[in-house]
Amino acid sequence: MGTETISELVRAANTLVLFKTERPLNDVQKCILEQVLQGKKLKDIQVTGYSDSTVQRVFCPKLWELLSDATGHKVRINTVNLILEKIQTQSSCSTSNQVEMTSTEQPPVPFPIPIKQLRHNLPAASCTNFIGREEEIARLLELLSTRHAAHLVSVDGTGGVGKTTLVVEAAYRCLHASYNNEAFLGVPTFDVIIFTSAKRYYLTPFGFLPSLAPRKTLLDIFQQIARVLGLEITGVSFEEQLDLIKDALSCQRTLLIVDNLETVENQQDVLAFLYELPPTVKAVITTREQIVFVPVRLTSMPEEDGLCLIRHEAKEKGVSLNTQDSQALYKMTGGIPVAISYAIGQLANGYPIQEVLGGVSKSTGDVARFCFETSVKPLEGQTAHKLLMALALFPIPALQDALVQVAAPDTENNTINSDLARLRGLSLVRQENNRYSILPLTREYAMCELNARPDFEAEARERWIGWYLSFSQRFAQQDAKEWQGEFDGLEEWQNLQAVIEWCMVKGRYTEMLQFWQNIEAYTHIMGRRESRLQYWDDRITWTAWLIKAAEQRGDWAVAAKVMVDRAWTLTSMGKQKQLEEAWELFTKAWELRHHQEPLFVLSLAKDIGVLYIQQQRYEEAETWLSQAIELFEHIQLDENQRLRQLTEIRYYQGEIIFKNQNYDQALTIFQQALEHAQLLDWRRAIYCIQNWLAEIAIKQGRHNEAEILLTEGLRVAEANQDKSRTAFCQRSLSNLAKAQNNLPQASDWAIKALENFETLGMLPEAEETQTLLQELDSDPP
């Protein structure tokens, strides 16, 4: 469609709308209509100054509704062209047959009408494109509309989070709607928009700029209102000023913005004034302190929006950033817009990325001072300050009990609750249920505050260690080879990691050993419930440190025990290099066996046998298991210990025999192991053994028996959230389906098993299952 034709259709639409509503199409509507007539799809329509989602979700639907009303036809993006052309054609054909209209019948065409003049003193927008915050700005505009009863709205959040930017953006949208009589689009309209700010300085990439005329008092605010309204209040008493301003505001719809309330003097007087304003006024305040009015609460930008802002700022300032640097910048700034803008500006000024990242997080730097100094300084020496500093020790949200015990264990509950509320009110901390958290930038600042007070830090660190030692004690009696009825602690794992790693850095051997003894079983269990890659990587790091520390101290009993634990972990991981290191550790531990009790030596011989099974060296494995049996016969054990050792030895002997394809003998050995496990009621062992019995049944053609064993085993494994056992059952079910020539079902089970093995980081098992899948794919139907 040609440009001239598009212009004619837009004019026709404008005339219809004008006749129907007595208002012409505005510039935004014309822009959208022109793009639609050019053939653009909805997702490609753009209007300068508005986000794509606003255009698509607000402006376009309102335009279709307006055109439907004006034309009498159901208008949509894919029908507007046809409807306008049809109406234009009908109009042309009927013109020659119509009698001339009288002046009263002729539709008025006053376009272009004079633009409505509004009084406002809005500052220049701080950004060319408003990015993110769509939910927040939609809520703010809704609160400003006549549909909502609230006349006093607060926008709160920590320093630099974008409160002023959000409010100014909303005000400009209201201003645009007011100019063009667009109330029907859902954007509030006003006769006057007044902006007053108590901000003392602005943060720019080249440092702080002072505000030349901050409105710090109620009288300052009065003067600003009077100036915009054209009132003369000089030399008039306070009471008369108040009456004059209220009378003037009551005659017109007004948007009044009070920016940076926390730096206003006599805040209560200002709030009282705002509270008593006539209903024609909508008042918005921005503040770092949470105030009990109708709030719009800002936190850091989500990663997607934060990265979008970084890309936009970089493009605007001519900065080239790769994906890695962008993500590092988002992580360091924590999604705080002022920090992002400052950092990009620094890069534009020629500073290297690493220096900029360091400067952003520096407690004495411009960003930290701008965001936190005015909020934190008044707290110094108080319990609230201790709570904030202590919270920096927790990488993920801290339990209130943990935070209080670390920061101020002897403080009364009323004081604690009051100070936590104060920190929330200052937007320095966030609360969710019984946990407290802070933004990354806040943590950096709080950590520097903590480091600057070494006496308090030393005390807090000791209490931090003590609390998590006590917390981890609950896991000390867990059995790594059994299912746990009640299981918790996962939510504290990253906080626990932080304490342990600090103990390692500081050489705290005693505490490190206590932690290890408490969570050794826990990490094994989580390796089969969640991820070996996550939990066992930590095991590898911690055991390496403990072995070295124990050897340096000549603590050979501990060294041998940790060597065995590390070697068992590496054996379970199963890669060649890991198995080689496991052998070296088992060899060292065997040399140190005289420092241990006989039961340790028996278990060590059995573990070495398992290592050889992993290496498929079955003769050597059987030799070590035979040695374990010989040791077993010469030591005193209680009945439970005796049955447990026999269960494990028979289990691994049965595995060797099965892999040598002697299924009848393997059946006998596994049945012995099952009897021992049942006497102990060792449930996980029972179902592990039954899995092998099912594999034997598959080999011997007893498919119904195998299906019963595996179906029950899978149900119990899933009920106990044991992904490792679940994956083994699924793989065995794949073997069963394959033996029954049901290849599609065999593939389905193998795919499920593979997914679980990969999630857990069980790489050798995943590779074996991948091979099984390839065999299934290559088998003829």
TrEMBL record:
Keyword 4Fe-4S set for record: no
Ranges annotated as spanning the membrane: none
Repeat positions for TPR: 647-680
Annotated ranges, domain vWA-MoxR associated protein N-terminal HTH: 6-86
Domain Orc1-like AAA ATPase: 129-280
Gene3D superfamilies from the UniProt entry: P-loop containing nucleotide triphosphate hydrolases, Tetratricopeptide repeat domain
Pfam family, one: AAA_16
The entry's keywords: TPR repeat
InterPro entries: AAA_16, HTH_VMAP-M9, P-loop_NTPase, TPR-like_helical_dom_sf, TPR_rpt
Keyword presence, Lipid biosynthesis: no
Protein's name in the database: RNA polymerase subunit sigma-24
Taxonomy of the source species: Bacteria, Bacillati, Cyanobacteriota, Cyanophyceae, Nostocales
